[in-house]
Amino acid sequence: MFYKDERLALFIDGSNLYAAAKALGFDIDYKLLRSEFMRRGKLLRAFYYTALLENDEYSPIRPLVDWLNYNGFTMVTKPAKEYTDSQGRRKVKGNMDIELAVDAMELAPRIDHIVLFSGDGDFRPLIESLQRQGVRVSVVSTIRSQPPMISDELRRQADNFIELEDLKDVIGRPPREGQAFNRDEVMTQ
User: Fold this and answer.
1) Closest CA to 12 of 164, 104, 118
2) Residue 141: which residues within 8 A CB-CB, separation 6 or more?
3) Taking the alpha carbons of 29, 61, 141, 27 in that order, is the dihedral positive or negative?
4) N or C: more exposed end of the chain, with fewer CB within 10 A?
5) Is 37 within 8 Å of 115 (Cβ atoms)?
6) Is the pLDDT of residue 50 over 50?
7) What is the CA 73 to chain-centroid distance, rounded?
8) Could you give all domains of the chain from N- to C-terminal order, each with its CATH number?
């Protein structure tokens, strides 16, 4: 479903991709991910979207953000909101949907194919609009987790659905033990 001469852009919903990979029992090796899609076409941009806790002295996601920034990814971040839920658990809320959608719409006239790493059904109208502009859209997520991490309407709208588990041997690595930051606590609404 990829053509060597097509101009590609990757749009990675960081918290969504992290949750999908975790549900499948592996971590993403972003160097391998970028290399894989450079092999599939002319990769023009690789965007990574995440909310950051700005008031923390040290954020466990900061090393990843810094590494991505120095290794060919365009980082799009904004401050996350921190709150305590009704059970007294610390939660972080950071929705990057609008930023991702605006960037995709701005880049659409210059690319042939967008690869969206997210299962969020809120992106269905974005995909539909990109397709009307002549851009092919592939979505990377999983239906093999319980529950599935991709909405049915997003999967139906996409030109191509790529099962994340099928990429495991190409872009995956075993999960690291003792990760200090639980990204499942990041809510995107």
Assistant:
1) 118
2) 16, 20, 117, 118, 119, 149, 150, 154, 155, 161, 163, 164
3) positive
4) C
5) yes
6) yes
7) 12
8) 7-173 (3.40.50.1010)
pLDDT score, position 79: 87
Phi, psi of 55 (to 5 degrees): -85, -10
Find the DSSP H helices in 25-70.
30-40, 62-70
Give how far Cα 25 sits from Cα of 145, 168, 173, 174, Å.
Answer: 10, 10, 9, 8
Backbone phi, psi, residue 56, to 5°: -80, 140
* Residue indicated by tokens 């990109």: 130
Q: In this structure, which amino acid lies at residue 108?
A: A
Q: What is the pLDDT of residues 119-149, one digit of tens each?
A: 999 999 999 999 999 999 999 999 999 999 9
- Reported as a single tens digit per residue, the pLDDT across 71-107 is 999 999 998 888 888 998 887 778 899 999 999 999 9
- Alpha carbons 123 and 121: distance in angstroms, whole number: 5
pLDDT band at 184 (very low <50, low <70, confident <90, very high): very low
Strand partners, 187: 93
